[in-house]
Write a structure and sequence with these properties.
The chain has 577 residues and is an alpha/beta fold. The protein is 40% helix and 16% strand. Helix 4 packs parallel to helix 5. It is globular. It starts with a helix and ends in a 24-residue tail after the last strand.
Length: 577
């Protein structure tokens, strides 16, 4: 070797180098990502270890779907994309359910998965966990990217972040082939390739004419109602939303994850008169809510015979007129739109029609009075109302705790009974109504906020993510899980129509003790058979901050088929001979 070549080689050896592992970590940290939700394995095991070594918090789950749900609700709570890290193929597919759910619910999330090398995938040569993950992900998320060269990692991460949070938020897939991690480049070159995303979710200011149109329609209303969706909660424009609703004087109806934007006990709250305000209103203003199945698509029996005029605020223009005519579309981000509406109302905005407000309040008060006795019983085994009456009081006494809810009857009854007092405290199944979000949401909720979590889940719903109680115990998280155990799906008293020895398709093991699962991992388990026992157990758990699971024994006959959405579950019209 010549002297010159020897000197060049020596200089290269002394040069600072970096690799794909470090560039991924540096790109995330540069953009304020602090927590990673993951399941370790090939080819991302070392990436997770190195992330933890770099100061990122890495929460390892037992199943990728639950890690993905955690990342998605982290995005909702923080307005930054939650990041889920998975292995290739099966792990990627497990995380994909959560990614699709995040996109449907408008939660900003990035699913990062390791993958096989392109040359092997494209020739279908049978690599370990070989799959064309990018092609599979594309139809189910807002955007999907693959990075092949270490120098492009910064751009790839930046594009994923911007896509996840800009406009209508959603899920983004980032594909990182295994060979990428080991690629070595000059450290200075690598550092310069990183991108800090500037203004990732810029404001979308509404058109002045659209603001005036919306206010004109609202002012003309004889029976107005404002519907708040989880988009309004995500916006974190809490003060302006409250000021606008109060200035309008109109009754408001919060969708489930918007509960608490204004307290459910606010004088204008109309949740207890939902049927009345939907059927009898003449002007409906939607703020961050969509006219999907949760609102009967804006038509049909739910909406009564009174003609409606709809005002809709949404950042996505294509959302307008999706089910019914929107006479006053207001396109922009919710914070900017509500601020503009407030400014346009001036100081002389008229009060809402007194007769309409009075009729709504009368109906609301009547329904609350009818429900009250049902919430005060102390039956053993419990019915849903007796158990929820206890939890309703506990949530009122602990308004800062986050409240996670899923199930069939457990979900449908809880969201109507348990009042919320602060924004973004109620987390539930959202637009798709999926089962299994519970434990992932619990973990992310306390990790991201530092607040305790109370979860109320059905026994069927708990089955989808129940193994994550080990994760809750491993990280010693202040989570209290209440499992409403009625021995089955909807009800626990189903029978085998064929008369055989197998249990009914909707029945679980009788007398199951879910509390012992938590005890197996070092947490606290309690079996509660009455509302009084439930009250003591939940308060003790919330005071202690220890991982706790309470097996709340519910009468197997207490539930209803499909909860309160039985109309979506077709029933056979044929009589059994």
């Amino acid at each position: 070797m010549s002297e010159t070549a020897s000197q060049t080689a020596g200089a290269a050896e002394e040069r600072d180098l970096t690799d794909g592992f470090n560039l991924v970590i540096d790109a995330l940290k540069l953009n304020g990502i602090q927590t990673i939700y993951n399941v370790p394995g090939i080819p991302i095991t070392d990436l997770g270890r190195m992330m933890q070594g770099s100061g990122l918090r890495v929460i390892s789950f037992r199943h990728e779907q639950n890690a993905g749900y955690a990342a998605s609700i982290a995005g909702f709570l923080t307005k930054k994309p939650g990041v889920c890290l998975t292995v290739s193929a099966p792990g990627f597919l497990n995380g994909l359910t959560a990614l699709a759910n995040a996109t449907t619910n408008c939660f900003p999330m990035i699913l990062i998965s390791g993958s096989s090398e392109r040359e092997i995938v494209d020739l279908q040569q049978g690599d370990y966990e070989e799959m064309d993950q990018l092609a599979i992900a594309k139809p189910l998320c807002k955007a999907a990217f693959r990075v092949l060269h270490a120098a492009d990692i910064g751009i790839g991460v930046a594009r994923a972040i911007r896509a996840a949070v800009s406009g209508r938020p959603g899920g983004v897939y980032l594909d990182l082939p295994a060979k990428l991690f080991g690629q070595v480049i000059d450290a200075e070159v690598g550092q310069k390739s990183l991108v800090k995303v500037i203004d990732p979710a810029p404001a979308h200011i509404p058109a002045p004419a659209a603001v005036k149109r919306a206010l004109d329609v609202l002012k003309s209303a004889k029976k107005p109602v404002i519907i708040l969706g989880k988009g309004a909660a995500y916006a974190q424009a809490d003060d302006d939303i409250r000021a606008f609703v109060e200035k309008s004087g109109a009754p408001f109806l919060p969708m489930s994850m918007a509960k608490g934007l204004l307290p459910d006990v606010h004088p204008q709250a109309a949740g207890a008169a939902r049927s009345t305000v939907l059927a009898e209103s003449d002007v409906v203003m939607l703020i961050g809510a969509r006219l999907n199945w949760l609102l009967s698509h804006g038509k049909g029996k739910t909406w009564g015979k009174a003609p409606k005029k709809f005002i809709q605020i949404d950042i996505e223009p294509k959302e307008m007129d999706s089910n019914v005519e929107i006479v006053a579309p207001l396109v922009g981000d919710i914070g900017s739109c509500v601020s503009a509406l407030l400014a346009g109302m001036g100081s002389d905005w008229p009060a809402a029609p007194a007769d309409w407000v009075k009729s709504v309040n009368t109906k609301k008060d009547d329904n609350i009075a009818k429900m009250a006795p049902r919430l005060m019983n102390n039956k053993s085994p419990m019915d849903y109302h007796g158990a929820l009456g206890v939890l309703r009081t506990i949530v009122k006494e602990r308004p800062d705790a986050l409240f996670v809810n899923e199930g069939a009857n457990t979900l449908d009854l809880t969201r109507g009974i348990v009042d919320m007092y602060k924004p973004r405290k109620r987390l539930d199944v959202g637009t798709w109504g999926v089962m299994g979000i519970g434990m992932g949401f619990c973990i992310a909720a306390t990790v991201e906020t530092g607040k305790p979590v109370l979860a109320v889940v059905g026994d069927s719903a708990f089955g989808f993510s129940g193994m994550e109680v080990e994760t809750i115990c491993r990280y010693n998280l202040p989570v209290c899980v209440v499992v409403f155990n009625n021995d089955g799906i909807y009800r626990g008293d189903g029978v085998n129509l064929g008369g055989g020895s197998d249990p009914s398709t909707t029945v679980f093991v009788k007398g199951a003790r879910y509390d012992r699962m938590m005890e197996a991992f070092g947490g606290v388990g309690v079996n509660a058979t009455s509302p009084d026992e439930l009250r003591v157990a939940v308060n003790t758990a919330m005071d202690s901050g220890k991982p706790t699971l309470i097996n709340a024994v519910i009468d197997p006959a207490a539930g209803a088929e499909s909860g309160r959405i039985g109309n979506l579950n077709p029933q056979s019209q044929l009589k059994k001979k």
